[in-house]
Design brief:
This protein is an alpha+beta fold. 69% of the residues lie in helices and 12% in strands. A two-stranded antiparallel ribbon has the order 1-2.
Length: 65
């Protein structure tokens, strides 16, 4: 279970890094990548939420027995 949590956390961090580098975010509504300027709130929610979830998924198995 720990490996799965670590793996999912790393995948989310890779997605967040990709979004930050390309300044794009995946929008399900239009089923396509859109720029940060087109959807600024969604972009920021993805970056902040994704980072927090990834940190939680990675830190939790490392801090608990």
């Amino acid at each position: 279970m720990r490996l799965i949590q670590l793996g999912v956390g790393l995948v989310i961090l890779v997605y967040v890094a990709y979004c930050l580098i390309t300044q794009k975010v995946w929008i399900r509504k239009v089923f396509a990548w859109r720029t940060r300027d087109e959807y600024p709130k969604v972009f920021m929610m993805n970056i902040i939420g994704g980072t927090l979830i990834a940190i939680w998924l990675i830190a939790r198995p490392l801090l608990t027995n």
